[in-house]
Amino acid sequence: MSSPLAQSIADLSSADRSKRLAAAGEIYRLGRAAAGSAISNWWAEGELSGLLLGPHPAITVGLAVERDTFGRIRIANGTPRLADVPADQDAEEFELRFADDVFLDVLTTREPGGSGAIAKYLAKFGEGVQQVEYRCTNVDRATQILKDKFGVVPVYPATRPGADGTRINFFLVVSPDGGKVLIELYESQSGR
Hints:
The chain has a single domain, classed as Roll (2,3-Dihydroxybiphenyl 1,2-Dioxygenase, domain 1), CATH 3.10.180.10. Helices cover 35% and strands 25% of the residues.
């Protein structure tokens, strides 16, 4: 039997637009809920909240899928432009934007069996919400606040290049239920 998340992922490639919209909304809701509970205390820190565009943050849910699923979803949604991802990240991605500020990044590995973060995620967990992305006005400053005030250590020692010229860093945050959520902070020149 298929899980609701697996069904939503499958429905992202449906020929039925209403199914795609419902699926995107459900995936976004699940990702945002997991991240929201994991970082709820961040919003009380005034400077950090401002850096993350609180109280109305720009949030994108990153969905990791196998290459064939990636292709089906991309075609069903009008073949959106592939992001320019740095080669060392072994990833391909495109963004889907839906009504009600529902944004998804659909991600896959460039090479089946590759060694990048997406390949490792897929090998360990299968298709699913891999990360939740928050637009940030200054990733370096937000990283410093997270280290100093929350004891949250970034995945990378310094902000690094991300897709489409963004600057990024990641944080593996423990949620109240004991699980972990990968949070990406990204700083964009384009205002995405």
